[in-house]
């Protein structure tokens, strides 16, 4: 997993620079900069909207005594999508929007659920319920 992460840290920025150079050549530098700013602003607005929706849904489920597990995964996706949109570049922006749009986020949520289930079955991920006050 560490090697994959290191590889991504090297390859993704190189690809981003390449795409930015192609965009600058095709559309011009001012338009490319404007597109980067526009995707950042739109991404921030979408992240705020989706984040607030996730918080409202989690509060509603918690008030009804339900465990908001699906909403927690939504929140993780929204957080990662928002952070990725802060980095300049079109590839990371595409990934960020993918994680922020509810219909496409469902694909990534399914992937996360499978990872968590495999980790729990293998014993590498253990959930321990903790009561702060020591009551049962």
UniProtKB/TrEMBL annotation:
What InterPro entries does this protein's entry cite? Answer: FxsA (IPR007313)
Q: Name one GO cellular component term.
A: membrane
| Record keywords, A-Z | Membrane, Transmembrane, Transmembrane helix
Pfam families reported in the protein's UniProt record = FxsA
| Highest taxon, organism lineage | Bacteria
Signal peptide limits: none
Record field: transmembrane: 26-47, 68-88
- Transmembrane as UniProt keyword: yes
PANTHER family named in the record: UPF0716 PROTEIN FXSA (PTHR35335)
Q: What is this protein called?
A: Membrane protein FxsA
Q: Which organism is it from?
A: Salipaludibacillus agaradhaerens (Bacillus agaradhaerens)
Q: What is the lineage of its organism?
A: Bacteria, Bacillati, Bacillota, Bacilli, Bacillales
* Name of the encoding gene: fxsA
